[in-house]
Every structure is written in structure tokens, then in C-alpha cells.
Design a protein that fits this description.
The strands form 3 sheets. A 7-stranded mixed beta sheet has the order 10-9-8-11-12-13-14, with helices on both faces. Strands 1-4-5-6-7 form a 5-stranded parallel beta sheet, with helices on both faces. The protein has 8 helices and 14 strands. It catalyses: D-ribose 5-phosphate + ATP = 5-phospho-alpha-D-ribose 1-diphosphate + AMP + H(+).
């Protein structure tokens, strides 16, 4: 008989972790985090994890304390003799630093991968990496889950006629094509030029959207500059409506204001990153049940290929 796994989470991911644990059918493990007056902290497992599997849940969105807390938890589990240490990172922070795009810059995603391995993680589970090649930065198994398994059925249920899938940039063209394949729809690409990060110089659309209901697909929405500019441009090009589905709602800076004032009918995100008091236009789909099912299969050494809809 396979012993039960134990589920713990960093403090900022407690809400999604509790949903996962409930869907998994098991209560959260007991742990405490001691804080020093200077801001230093120390996580501590308040129950044995010796010889078993632990699922440590934590998105690594800023602040950097989220990443540090996850690393400390992994190290604590290793030193407490856990046999299997699975780091569940719904949102993999620093994934945009997947290559040297100019001289004298780090490859941050590779560094994070090595830090997780050094801390003691034996497996990583994450959703919609910004760049697929990040999986190759690891020497341990990586379960790369796609939000399309949640988004595709949701889009189908909208019953939109004359559907067109759009990518807000060239980098997302593969993702948009995969969605278009599953939804049997047309696809267009928005081409943008940047002068610097988070600042768009100009944007054009490759393809025809006149008289179409357009759904923009992306892995994340940060400042919302690209997405809202794309939505407004598509409406100007004759689109009947524009919606957006983005896995990770980073939503920094003026994102909320831009979304509210844009031509977007709605934005659908997942709860990989916690948010409160979202504008009416933003809807949230939970990843809890999907991850819980995969966690259960991983723990019982069952195939998880049925959960991957790229």
C-alpha cells in the first residue's frame, strides 16, 4: 500500500493549496514559519515527513520571499528525510529570463532550476511555462501542465460563431495554433515592436478579423499593455468582439485600469497567482482540481498523459 502524501504550501499560496488539498481529499500538513525582527524567516514542518512524499506548493511571483520560502521548505524536507519532494509551482517566476537576449544579462530561469535542484527537489510541477525549453534546464522530472485543458472547454461553452483565435505577439503563435486546432477555428497573429520592456512601439495584425469573434490567448498578462492594445486594434480592424484567456494574471502596474478601459469584453485567468478585488471584466478559473488529479496520479505512479492538452 502506498503511504499517503503530505501537502504543504508557502504562505502566499495558502489559498490555492487549500483548494488543491480539498480536491485531493486530504487536509493540509501542519507547518509554522518563524519570523525574525529583520524580516528573515524559517519554515518548520510540525509533523514527520520521513520516507514519504511531500507536495510543496508555491508560485514564485514577486516578492522574492515567495521563492526563498519555497527553497527553504524544500531544504527542510530533504533534511527531514522525505523520500520524494515535489515542488508544485503553478506560476514559475523568472521564466521570461530563459535566454541571453543581450550581452551581460543572466539566464534567470536556468538559475532558478538549479537552485530548486540544489535545495533538494526531486520533481517539479508547473503550468504554462513562458518558454517550453525551460524544462530542459532541469535534471529532474518536470510535469508541464497546460491551461488549455481548462480554457478550451470554457471557450467551446461560449458558443461563439465565426471564432478566431489570436496571439498578441509572434512568440505565442504556436500556442494560438494549438488552440485553433482544438477549436477548429481561424488564427491571426498580432505583431508588436518594443523599444524596451513593457513598452510597445507599434502593433499590426497578420490576418483578417473583420466580422469575427476573437479570442486572444497568452501565457501571462503583466502590465496588460500588449493585450489591451491588441484588443483595441482588433476592434478597429472590424472584429465583432474580443476576449482574452491568459493563464497567469500577474497584473502589475496599471493593468487593472487598462483592462477596465479597454475594448476587451472579458479576461479569463487562472488562480496560479492570488488576487483580491478584481474588476468585473476579469473572471477566474481554478486549477485546483486539475493539479490535484495529477498529484494523485504522480503519487500512485499512474500515467498523467491524459491531462496534457497542448
Amino acid at each position: 500500500m502506498v503511504p499517503s502524501a503530505k501537502i504543504f504550501a508557502v504562505r502566499s499560496s495558502q489559498r490555492i493549496a487549500e483548494k488543491m488539498a480539498k480536491a485531493y481529499g486530504q487536509p493540509m500538513g501542519v507547518m509554522e514559519v518563524s519570523e525574525f525582527s529583520d524580516g528573515e524567516f524559517q519554515p518548520s514542518f510540525e509533523e514527520t515527513v520521513r520516507g514519504g512524499r511531500v507536495f510543496l506548493i508555491g508560485s514564485t511571483n514577486p516578492p522574492t520571499e515567495n521563492l526563498m520560502e519555497l527553497l527553504l521548505m524544500i531544504d527542510a524536507a530533504k533534511r527531514a528525510s522525505a523520500k520524494h519532494i515535489t515542488a508544485i509551482m503553478p506560476y514559475f517566476g523568472w521564466a521570461r529570463q530563459d535566454r541571453k537576449d543581450k550581452p551581460r544579462v543572466p539566464v534567470g530561469a536556468k538559475m532558478i532550476a538549479k537552485m530548486l535542484e540544489t535545495a533538494g527537489a526531486t520533481r517539479v510541477m508547473t503550468m504554462d511555462l513562458h518558454a517550453d525549453q525551460i524544462q530542459g534546464f532541469f535534471e529532474i522530472p518536470v510535469d508541464h501542465v497546460f491551461a488549455s485543458s481548462l480554457f478550451v472547454p470554457h471557450i467551446k461553452n461560449l458558443g461563439l460563431s465565426d471564432l478566431t483565435i489570436a496571439s498578441p505577439d509572434m512568440g505565442g503563435s504556436k500556442r494560438a495554433n494549438n488552440y485553433a486546432k482544438w477549436l477548429e477555428s481561424e488564427v491571426v497573429i498580432c505583431y508588436k515592436q518594443r523599444k524596451k520592456a513593457n513598452v510597445i512601439d507599434k502593433m499590426t495584425v497578420i490576418g483578417n478579423v473583420e466580422g469575427r469573434n476573437v479570442v486572444l490567448i497568452d501565457d501571462m498578462i503583466d502590465t496588460a499593455g500588449t493585450l489591451t492594445k491588441a484588443a483595441d486594434m482588433l476592434i478597429e480592424q472590424g472584429a465583432l468582439s474580443v476576449r482574452a484567456y491568459c493563464t497567469h494574471g500577474v497584473l502589475s502596474g496599471k493593468a487593472m485600469e487598462r483592462i477596465t478601459n479597454s475594448k476587451l469584453e472579458e479576461l479569463v485567468i487562472t488562480d496560479t497567482i492570488p488576487h483580491d478585488n478584481l474588476p468585473e471584466k476579469i473572471k477566474v478559473i481554478s486549477i485546483a482540481e486539475l493539479f490535484a488529479n495529477i498529484m494523485h496520479k504522480v503519487h500512485h505512479h499512474e500515467s498523467i498523459s491524459s491531462h496534457f492538452l497542448e
